[in-house]
Amino acid sequence: MASESDAPVDLYIVLYSGRVGAQTDWADIKRMGREKVLAFNALVLVSRETDGNIDIEDDAHTKGASTAVGRRGRP
After folding, report:
1. Contact yes or no for 54/63 (Cβ under 8 A)
2. Helix (H) or strand (E) holding 26
3. Counting CB atoms within 10 angstroms of each CB, which of 6, 18, 50, 66 has the fewest?
4. CA atoms within a 13 Å half-sphere pointing along the CA-CB vector of 26
5. Contacts of 42 (CB under 8 A, 6+ apart)
6. CB–CB of 24/50 below 8 Å?
7. How do residues 1-57 score in pLDDT, each as one tens digit?
8. Structural contact between residues 26 and 43, judged by C-beta atoms closer than 8 angstroms
């Protein structure tokens, strides 16, 4: 018998030419999750700012990071 951890997992990666389109889709996907239209385990938006820093947003919280991004645990 397969456990939940053995269930297949899909990973979708989308590349945008600008942050506005990505941010719009991010908000729409989060809304669809709240409305139970989509189900997902995690949602992450990663962008590189003009100063070279990497900004990471996930469905739990937002964090700015330097260009060297390390592991992050969930609270």
Report:
1. no
2. helix 19-34
3. 50
4. 20
5. 58, 59
6. no
7. 556 677 777 888 899 988 889 989 989 998 998 899 988 888 888 888 888 888 888
8. yes
